[in-house]
Amino acid sequence: MSTQITFPDGFLWGGATAANQLEGAYDQGGKGLSVQDVMPRGIVGPRTAEPTPDNLKLVGIDHYHRYAEDIALFAEMGFKTYRFSIAWSRIFPLGDEEAPNEEGLAFYDRLLDELEKHGIEPLVTISHYETPLHLAETYDGWTDRRMIGFYERYARTLFERFGSRVTYWLTFNEINSLLHAPFMSGGINTPKDELDEQTLYQAMHHELVASARATRIAREVAPNAQIGCMVLSMPVYPLSPSPADALAVMDFDHSNLVYGDVHTRGAYPGYFLRTLREKGIELEITDQDREDLAHTVDFVSFSYYMSVAATADPAKKVSGEGNIMGGVPNPTLEASEWGWQIDPVGLRIVLNQFWDRWQKPLFIVENGLGAKDQLVEVDGVKTVVDDYRIAYLNDHLVQVGEAVLDGVDVLGYTTWGCIDLVSASTAQLSKRYGFIYVDRNDDGSGTLERFKKKSFDWYTEVIRTNGASL
Ligand code: BG6
Hints:
Blueprint: E1 12-16, H1 19-22, H2 63-77, E2 81-85, H3 88-91, H4 102-117, E3 121-127, H5 133-139, H6 146-162, E4 168-172, H7 182-186, H8 197-221, E5 226-232, E6 236-238, H9 243-265, H10 270-279, H11 287-293, E7 299-303, E8 308-310, H12 344-358, E9 362-366, E10 376-378, E11 381-383, H13 387-405, E12 410-416, E13 436-438, E14 450-452, H14 454-464
Parallel strand pairs: 1-2, 1-12, 2-3, 3-4, 4-5, 5-7, 6-8, 7-9, 9-12
Antiparallel strand pairs: 10-11, 13-14
Keywords: Glycosidase, Hydrolase
Protein name: Glycoside hydrolase family 1 protein
Family: Belongs to the glycosyl hydrolase 1 family.
């Protein structure tokens, strides 16, 4: 007999975005350049010397000017929460200056005003793949210990300014992607193939210390703040039942879980120290660093899009399309148009794994299907009949419900790209996730007009019934 799925009272339903993927206005309001402004091809392409007109992020979906209209649409769906990021280079245009840019702070004040007006709880990412470019070019990003101080000043500024209005904060988006996408994730300007592991692991350490310091500062400056880490989750299955493949799974897991382990336990786990020893890496870890790391998070947030498989057999190690974390494709699963393997059950598995391991409330802050949408006219109204998106989200939410029944403490769920925005990995607009279609195309053409998709009404009903309609 199956049990009826019920979501907890006060479950935070909503959607998520990131500044660099939707705001546009890349050079307005005193904003400095960020690494994204020179990444017209996403993760795959090389960076450019300067911003180029083919970079869709420079205009994004013009949310900087249309945020009130967009938030009103989120409110119409009944959003309880909205996850957005603050563009670091709007607040500190270069990143290493002493005083913040008031115009940048004022923009987020106005955005928070709109959320308050509609009773939507903000969920703020402090750093979402948008390190100020100056920090990348002058310090080589997180390879340099001084980044901790710059981030600390930035985080303190945000807590002081917005701490009374924002409860939920995330320190770094997908912090565990640093080794895989050093420029986008860590502002590391040195090309990836010229970086050694010693440098990358030291950069990881700097970010972990910075994250913990932010938590420490929040405790003092914004005592009501709830601080979360944010990791890219990637459940992994053995390609075969052999112990060797099970061990490959353990190793793959360890390489991802170490970030959450440090954030929740306040120290490096033994398996990670062994990895460092065997690689001959000696991290510079000061006594102050150790003390800082002990400031652990209140909750763990994560993105979930797909699972992978792992194998110990070198002949079977083929890489999956669109998967920056490694792993091999799972022959039992279908994939999205971009090769991301669709696995709703994996979400239940990862929720249980994280809960069992960390015993911290969990927040799913990204999940969704990137797909090509077709704008059509139904009864004289322009819309997208996105049944594929509804099916994807419905199947995943049913698994969240199952995890709740398993006893997992889940705070909320925000779909990725609740309004169409520019893709992080490929920098396209045609990879759409939203409930709201935005008329802008990969060649930059389009009116930027917004249209409600079929999934808009579906999600409205899910929220209205607190998940009972699933
Ligand atoms: C996550 C990122 O990795 O996945 C987002 O935090 C990103 O910034 C999302 O947009 C979806 O990826 P993509 O490449 O389809 O935009």
